[in-house]
Amino acid sequence: VLARLTSPLSLAEVESDILRRVRALLRELDGHHPSCQSDRGMLRWTLHKKIEQNPSTSCVLVRILVKELERAERGDLRHYIIPLLHTLMYTLVQAPCIPEELCARVYDFCKRLLTLPKPFCTIGLDYASRLQVERTAPGTLYQRMVISEHSLPSAPFPHRERIFIFADPELLPEAICKALLTDTQAAQVSQSPRGCMSCVVAHALQAALGDTCDLHGLRARLQALSPGDVEHWFQQVVVAVEGQGGSERGQHTARLERIYSSLLGSLPAGNAPQEGLQGTPLPNPNISFHLWTEDEQLWKELVLFLRPLSQSCEPDGLGQELDAAEMQDMLAGCDCCQQSRFSVLSTDSGIERDLAAPEEPCGPCAADTERSRLHRKGGIKKKLSPLDSVALLQAGSAVPAGKPPGKPPRRSGMSPEPAAPLQRLHTARVVLLGDDRILGRLAQAFHSLRKREARRVFLTPRLNLQFYHVPVVPGQPPQDHAGPEELCEVAGYLGRADPWYESNINTLCHMIPKLATTPVLCPQPSRALVTDLFLPDVIAYYARMATQPVCFQLHAVKLLFQDPAQDPAEDVFLTELLTQVQDSPSHRELSTTKRKSTLDGPGIDLTVTYRKVVLSDRQKELALSLRSTGLLMKAIPAEEAEGLGCLSVSITEIIRINHLAGRSFTAVANRFRTRQIQVRSPEQRPLTVRLDKDSRRTYRDVIGLEVSPCLEPSYCLHKTRTTKFSPHETEDVGLVRYLPKSLLLPINTFAGVIQ
């Protein structure tokens, strides 16, 4: 059997099988879907699973992918390049050992991508820099990924990452939510810190030593060690890989050889493994699943990620990164972080003549009496209620109470030391599961978060926030597979812009409900493997490799209501705004409406003022009056050439036609593109407005609305301050010119928008 596995014929069969799988991936990119529809979206996953089960074939896959990349470059097949490059890099990170000549070929190819337009040059530069580090110190990419994803203690590389999956329980069935929660929890069962540290040590030593590394003996040795000893050797490996920047590969190998000898000892002759090169699997990342039930839940989870419960109530830990003012805000109202504070309610008026006339004091006591008049008396002590702050999230902590530290004393005559700039050491990867409605809710939460950050910056300088979208629509897929459904316009646009997103993520739209509702039978272990590992693996691959954002313009809407006493409402939307004629509630108004509808037709009179988008980018303001039954504003273009900055407005106009037999009415659709629009009802007839296809975000009794691009809250704040001191300035001056003006929602894909 061993001779057959190592024979040239067996190697040729392996190469042929892998090449066939890679070519199937490329055919799917061309739109030729596999004959078995159940394989859609699973070709990449099955390929990587095959390599994971047999790590010795990773070099074969890398060599085939390099040849296909060079062939795509010669044939100008650019839509193949990014998918092949992502597949290659994901394989290279997990491979136990890759020859230097293969790494050099991949590195040279990435450098040639710098001559191409975006996103090819951006991805090529990113991967070229990673490969340069990997060639100098093999195993660095694997080590950094595991350290950051599992928050392992590491001073040379103190980065932290976490994947947050958010699903709206009102939009997805309970069975799907339970299945997703079960899958994400099952993927975390075996991911202990000790196991992850052992994986880092084993992979780093094997990547440096190659075939001479006894992986089985190394695993047995690490398994026999105590958790403290495993962490000790883990720190030794991390320092050897990260702490010697700029050293050559030979020096890196020598350092790890010394660690290997100290940990395992020299390998006796004849004991080297003979079954081929083994690998160390890449642990699943830290994934948390959340049912989105509160409006502020996203912000709270991000704050808790930055300040875990074990650290938030420790003043010393907070003081390392926060100044005194920030600590007061973070710890205010937290009973476990400060002593009880009391306020005194005064009962006097503060007027001196209202005080009781004191007796004439003697000479020595006159000064004391005068000072006593300055103090309030007779107060009632009342304990303040806890403030609505981050500290409320930390209730129940077992840390003993302590007084928050103040500013350290500064010696006279010495200038204060400049504060070290904050670094974004935390990365939160937020994955939204659902359709366009949950993205509309994300737009609201993102706008609220940016407004909070504009008032007081906390998350922005410390947290790298990344958004991802996995479309999920319960129900059966369309029979013709013509395209995305009406509820997944954002995912459809991302799929048209990025073919690799279409192949790997958009195919989950109907696959997730199917896998979640299909019972797992014991006699089918392969079916259980797909259900238990496929979804977490695909989400992990998406979060790890999708680094190119597609930025969507948010639009702000101001709503005016029929009741003059009701204040106008302000909201934001991402995908669409639908306006329809509202049914008249009163009988008198209903009879009047019927008589008028008989004469003028259905609908109501509207006045529309908008700025038309023209090719010269000049502002051309138009106004029209018409009778309409409603209008629809769409922010997601049906074609890529239209761009993401404009609204496509469709107004259903009712036209009356007079003829000999009487009069008739016909509906005509008026379409135009604009950036700003105002709609009014001169008759004060009510309208119904629905945002982002979500019935929960429906406004009634609306008589007017104004829609414009949503501005960045920090820009608005600085603009207001500038206008306050320079009221005659109409253009942006000072630092305002360099601030982003529009509020964009970035959603990551594998390639961004391929032109």
From TrEMBL:
The lineage of its organism: Eukaryota, Metazoa, Chordata, Craniata, Vertebrata. Keywords: Kinase, Transferase. GO terms for molecular function: 1-phosphatidylinositol-3-kinase regulator activity; kinase activity. It comes from the Eukaryota. It comes from Nicator chloris. Residues 396-421 are annotated as: Disordered. This is PI3R6 kinase. PANTHER family: PHOSPHATIDYLINOSITOL 3-KINASE REGULATORY SUBUNIT, PHOSPHOINOSITIDE 3-KINASE REGULATORY SUBUNIT 6. One of its GO terms (cellular component) is phosphatidylinositol 3-kinase complex, class IB. GO terms for biological process: G protein-coupled receptor signaling pathway.
